[in-house]
Each structure stands twice: as structure tokens, then as C-alpha cells.
Amino acid sequence: MLDLTGKNALVTGIANNRSIAWGIAQQLHKAGANLGVTYLPDDRGRFKQKVSELVEPLNPSIFVPCNVQNDEQVDAAFETVKEKWGKLDILIHCLAFANKDDLAGDFSTVSREGYNLAMEVSAYSLVQLCRAAKPLMTDGGSVVTLTYVGGVRVIPNYNVMGIAKAALEMNVRYLASEMGPQNIRVNAISAGPIRTLASSAVGGILDMIRHVEEVAPLRRTVTQEEVGNTAAFLCSDLSSGVTGQVLYVDAGYEIMGM
User: Fold this and answer.
1) Is 2 contained in some domain?
2) Is 153 contained in some domain?
3) Which of these, 21, 101, 170, 185, could form a disulfide with 94 (CB 3.0-4.6 Å)?
4) Residue 139 located in a structural domain
5) Quick check: is 158 catalytic?
6) Is residue 3 part of a domain?
7) Catalytically annotated residue among 39, 115, 124, 148
8) What is the arrangement of strands in the sheet containing 62-65, beginning at the earlier edge strand?
9) Which member of 158, 174, 248, 253 is catalytic?
10) CA count, 13 A, side-chain hemisphere, 26
């Protein structure tokens, strides 16, 4: 029943084989979607090569650089989508960043620059990408982003990223309201802690994972594949009535009080 054949899906945020974005890309591919992949460029081209080799088995028809702090790169990426595909059906937003120093210690010590950086990359970028994607989603579409319970509850060392995730979740609601009349749905997945390149910057991530394994109703955390399955559902017609929502894929951890 979950069939994405003929759908064009642009996936952002793949860094390596531990990335949640990689798990999502794999499940979209299995469901038949035609994939496009963006990567974060660097001076030596290391990320381009690493991501290119990783996604090769998925045979993406688009592979472009996209640093969301560079408006020209964002515009160029979506111009490529327009030229090669003509339309876009699915946008996967898996982008977040904060200075490592702002993910430890007292929250009040975060600098203005660090605060703005986390908000720009982790929250504003969803608005930015949706603005670019909206004209290309001529047959409707689905946008999925990633959040975390640290956006609604205090998590040790999550600090400024919690603020960014709170903003991201509100972005989802406002974008869902705006884009709904064009049959474009916008949702978020709040995933349990997974050991990724991004999460490794959060102090005590292994302690967080162990805590979830002890407390969550399923007595474990989740995998990239499970998050990917939920993303595929949200991108399919099976979720045609779902928009503006935050779906928790965290082995039930969010419901627990202690």
C-alpha cells in the first residue's frame, strides 16, 4: 500500500551511514521514489565524495551542494530540481547545527552569534526550503522535518538546540497552515536519541540513550530504519489527512513522567 513510485523526493542532511536522513532516503527508495540528494560542500570536497559514495546504490538523479547559509546555493539546488524534474513531491529536511560550546554548561552563557547560528541552520532553513519548494509542488506534496523532545522539555546539554527545535515545531504548524490550500502537507518526526554525527556533539549522548532504554515503554531506543518508515508513511497517500503534526518515534519515551 505504501507506494511512492513516480514521486520526486529531495533529501537534505545526509552526512554518513549513521544519519537519520540516510535511513529516510533508503526507505523512500524502497518505496519507489525518485531521489535527489543535497550535500554540505566543503573546501576539500570531502563531504561530496563521502555522501556520493554512500548514496550511489540509491541511484539519485540529482546530487547538488546546498549550504542553507548560502542563498545562491539554495536557489541553484531548486533550479536544478525544476530543470531536471519539473516538479517536486517530497522534501525531507534533516538540517541542524549549533556550536559545540553552546551544547554544554549554563544555557545563559550562549552567545548572540551562537544563538542566531543555531536558529538559522536548524529552524529558519525549513522556512527557506519550503519557500523554494512551494512553487515546484504543483501536484501537492509532503514536507517532513526532524525534531526532538528537547524542543518541549529540558534535556541536559541540549541547551540552544532545544530552543531551535521549539521554533522548528512552530514553523511546521505555520507552514502547514500556509501550504495546506495547495495540498502540501508539513509534518515533523520527533525521533528518540540515535547516535549520529550530529548527536555526538551533545554532551552525554550515550547516557541519554541508556536512559531511554531503561525508561521507554519498549525498553529501547529507535533505529534510523524506524524513523525512515515513518517518514515514508508521511510522504505517502496513507497519511493524506495528516499535516501540522509532530509524530513521536521514540519507543514511547515521550509519554513517561519518570
Assistant:
1) no
2) yes
3) 21
4) yes
5) yes
6) no
7) 148
8) 62-65, 34-39, 8-11, 90-93, 141-147, 184-191, 246-249
9) 158
10) 17
CATH code: domain of residue 90: 3.40.50.720
Q: How many residues does the chain have?
A: 258
Q: In this structure, how many other beta carbons lie within 10 angstroms of the beta carbon of residue 186? A: 27
The domain in which residue 126 lies consists of 8-249
CA angle 13, 174, 80 (to 5 degrees): 40
Amino acid letter, residue 152: V
Task: Please give the Cα distance from 7 to 240 (Å, whole number).
Answer: 15
Residue closest to 132 by CA, chosen among 171, 177, 88, 170: 88
* C-beta separation of 188 from 147 below 8 A: yes
Q: Does residue 148 have an active-site annotation?
A: yes
To which residue does cell 531503561 refer?
214
pTM of model > 0.85 = yes
pLDDT in tens, 147-199: 999 999 999 889 999 999 999 999 999 999 999 999 999 999 999 988 655 55
Q: What is the count of structural domains for the chain?
A: 1
